[in-house]
């Protein structure tokens, strides 16, 4: 006999909502989340005598596919148990399992992650310091002025054969970017590119080893011009790679700029 106030698992049963020949529907409350549910209690002995298990299963299958605001939807929740890689450390395994806990009460929060010993190991939190420190700024600028060093894997990833953007864009890779080599110093390369861009009427912004250039130009068809970026990458101590990439704008103007840069650095394009 099911009485009001009885607890079944994590659900506390309340008043009766409805009653039929072989089942009773009661209002239930999740004692963890406080959410209300309708629990259907079936008398198995009565259903077996009436031979209606098939009808009950058919009812469940039907309610699963129906989607209407006036029809109660059935939710089946399955606990996931994703495998954790064996090569992870015990601390990392424990933290990942707690983060994937389906129970929101025992699931690991951001605060508990920050307090975890494994997470705190060799972790240095970022700090926003508004005080001016000229010495630190100068050291940071010196380190950022040196070009980005790329390894063999990054160089292979830059190959146009691995660029899938052509599947979504009308322009080919060779029409919007070029790469060439130079044995000049990175600072000299950036200054020369900046000079050429300014001579061609571009507004140039320099950030570390990257240049952003924009040239606005009005045409009969609308707003023209060109927007592009130039960046220097360090291959070996005596060799740099320069990448020029067009963001948008006039392709003919971009081609003129590419030809001028290649002539200036006596280089051939590696598209």
From TrEMBL:
Keyword Nucleotide-binding carried by entry: yes
Enzyme Commission code(s) on record: 2.7.11.1
Reported cofactor(s): Mn(2+)
GO annotation terms (biological process): signal transduction
Pfam families: NAF, Pkinase
Domain NAF: from-to ranges: 145-169
GO MF entries: ATP binding; protein serine kinase activity; protein serine/threonine kinase activity
Keywords: ATP-binding, Kinase, Nucleotide-binding, Serine/threonine-protein kinase, Transferase
CDD domains: CIPK_C (cd12195)
Residue intervals of the Protein kinase domain: 11-271
SUPFAM superfamilies: Protein kinase-like (PK-like)
Principal EC category: transferase
Record region (Disordered): 124-145
Reaction equations catalysed: L-seryl-[protein] + ATP = O-phospho-L-seryl-[protein] + ADP + H(+); L-threonyl-[protein] + ATP = O-phospho-L-threonyl-[protein] + ADP + H(+)
UniProt cross-references to InterPro entries, sorted A to Z: Kinase-like_dom_sf, NAF/FISL_domain, NAF_dom, Prot_kinase_dom, Protein_kinase_ATP_BS
Compositional bias (Acidic residues): 129-139
Family listed: Belongs to the protein kinase superfamily. CAMK Ser/Thr protein kinase family. SNF1 subfamily.
Name of protein: non-specific serine/threonine protein kinase
Organism the protein comes from: Brassica campestris (Field mustard)
């Amino acid at each position: 006999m099911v009485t009001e106030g009885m607890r079944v698992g994590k659900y506390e049963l309340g008043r009766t909502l409805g009653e039929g020949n072989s089942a009773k529907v009661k209002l239930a409350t999740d004692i963890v989340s406080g959410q209300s549910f309708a629990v259907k209690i079936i008398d198995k002995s009565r259903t077996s005598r009436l031979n209606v298990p098939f009808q009950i299963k058919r009812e469940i299958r039907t309610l699963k596919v129906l989607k209407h605001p006036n029809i109660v939807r059935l939710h089946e929740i399955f606990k996931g148990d994703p495998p954790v890689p064996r090569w992870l450390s015990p601390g990392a395994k424990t933290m990942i399992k707690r983060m994937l806990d389906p129970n929101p009460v025992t699931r690991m929060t951001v605060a508990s992650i920050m307090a975890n010993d494994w997470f705190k190991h060799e972790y240095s939190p970022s700090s926003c310091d508004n005080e001016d420190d000229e010495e630190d700024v100068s050291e940071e600028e010196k380190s950022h002025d040196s070009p980005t060093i790329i390894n063999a894997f990054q160089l292979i990833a830059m190959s146009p054969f691995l660029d899938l953007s052509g599947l979504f864009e009308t322009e080919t890779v060779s029409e919007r970017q070029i790469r060439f080599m130079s044995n000049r110093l990175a600072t000299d390369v950036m200054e020369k590119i900046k000079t050429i861009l300014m001579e061609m009427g571009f507004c140039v912004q320099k950030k570390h080893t990257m240049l952003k250039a924009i040239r606005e130009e009005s045409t009969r068809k609308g707003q023209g011009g060109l927007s592009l970026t130039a960046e220097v990458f360090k291959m070996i101590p005596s060799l740099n790679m320069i990448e020029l990439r067009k963001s948008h704008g006039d392709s003919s103007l971009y081609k003129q700029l590419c030809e001028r840069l290649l002539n200036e650095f006596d280089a051939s394009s590696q598209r």
